[in-house]
Amino acid sequence: MRLSWLNNRFTITFGVIFVLVAIWNVYIGFHDHGLIEGRVIGPNGAPVAGATVTLFEQTLLVNQERGKTTTDAEGRFKFTGHHMHRPYLEAEKEGVGQFGPHQYPLYFQGEDLILKKPIELAPRTS
Amino acid sequence: MARWLRPRRRSHWPVHLALALISALMLIPFYWVLKTSLTGENIFAYPPSLLPHDPNPFYFVDVWYAIPFLRYLINSVVVSVLVVVANVFLNAMAGYALTRDFPGKAATIMLFLSCMMIPFQVTIIPAYLITAKLHLLNSYFGMALPLMSTIICIFIFKAAFEAIPHSLVEAARIDGVPDWQIMFRLIMPLTKPAIATNVILSFIWSWNSFLWPLVVVRDVDMQTLPLGLSRFMSVVEDTTGALYAFCVMVLVPGLLIFLLAQKEFIKGLTSGATKG
Asked: Residue A46 sits in which domain range?
């Protein structure tokens, strides 16, 4: 059986592209639950309970608020089911401070985003 | 032999250096497009920064989701495949016919050569009317139709076929092989560079075609990548990074095909230039 066509630069190039696309799609399939998770801390590093965290979407075509939540006793917050690739997060608590809006660009829509660095509220300057 | 009589081996490095510099100069626009697509830097910034600051792929992600890129890509691929297949098949047949003797051959060649001087824009109205009569407006076939045979490519095949020893064709004919088999089973396998040249040229012409698809396509879902780029520019303003990312996404397939087939392409362009 002649398989010389396999050892051809066209076959190899497009084959590699096809494999990479397939791997990427499998990766997306396992990481597109639309989860955004994080923690909010105050200027002193302590968790802030009851802070309001707002989720915005800003793309080339859209600029809209997509959700709002408050942090729990440990300063944790969670959004589920988003379909964005350019989410913005804003957080604030009266008397503690404010953060953002800060952009978290994603590689694909609905990518799970677990913030490694907590959101740190800073006192308002104005 | 005296040393001064010996043929001196010429050093090639000045030529290579000059070629490398010219190549680098020609690659600057591509580099600039790629750099801007990764950074979104203002292209009019002065002094310009040569190295990208904080490169990221997110403008590509923006483009992917801002427009139906996959749809445009599929449309471009379908039209280009139709054009490439038709070009190789039809141009090979026309090129083979021009290697044979028949009454009016010189006049036919003159007609072809003179037709090359007429720009496509001049014939766009009759082309549109013919496409409309054939009920091919707003279809893949209609978009591919005017590019399905190109005169330059016919002459590339003709030159390649003429470089094949005539005795080979005659031997096949004496053995009773019909003409279509002579062409597709004997001559075509010997003219791979010409086929590669046809594939590359027709693919690039079809891929970059803007005016004809703009005229025949009415449905947004039937638009090709160049039309999508134009629509993107008209809908979304102030998007330097995304615009350049889109340009890169349109350019890459053509560049890839060219780089993969460049050896055969150059052979194909030079075959027939020298004989013997």
From this structure: 36-120
